[in-house]
Write a structure and sequence with these properties.
alpha+beta, 4-stranded mixed beta sheet, 4 strands, 44% helix
Length: 151
């Protein structure tokens, strides 16, 4: 039932060329909080994955950045970006439909990101260099010294 909402949303926006065949539903206390899909093409935003859109919507609706009591249902296994967002949102339970291999078979390319994470920065995907560490450390200290919220 819940996954069908994700599938239907994904199919609807996929057919409108908003984005890929991915949908997500966030549930809290057996109530549907958010139903979203991939809108990367429509929004011209590479971060507009179904999971990210659902998390953003749920956070607005619940007026929080912490979704610890929520469950996420997604039509496809989350990409590394989405897994990170799920973890940052404190969602502890996720149900998914298709696998990474299923998505790769139609051309989706999550593997190169997983390989980057596993193997480190080889310079093939991304060049990352540290710059102005001392100045940036001052910013961290200011945050800590002002007792700002750690999330």
């Amino acid at each position: 039932m819940i996954m069908k909402l994700a599938i239907d949303k994904a199919r609807d926006t996929m057919m409108k060329d908003y984005g890929g065949p991915f949908g997500a539903v966030i549930v809290k206390d057996d109530k549907i909080i958010s139903v979203a899909s991939n809108t990367t093409l429509k929004d011209k935003d590479p971060t507009a994955h179904a999971e990210i859109n659902a998390i953003r919507d749920a956070c607005k609706k619940l007026n929080t950045y912490d979704l610890k009591d929520c469950i996420l249902y997604v039509t496809g296994y989350p990409c590394p970006m989405c897994i990170s967002a799920i973890i940052w949102a404190n969602i502890k339970e996720v149900y998914y439909g298709t696998t990474l291999k299923d998505a790769a078979e139609i051309g989706f390319r999550d593997d190169f990101i997983y390989n980057f994470i596993r193997n480190g920065n080889t310079g093939e995907v991304l060049n990352i260099s540290r710059l102005d560490r001392d100045e940036c450390l001052k910013l961290l200290e200011e945050y800590k010294n002002n007792n700002k919220t750690i999330y």
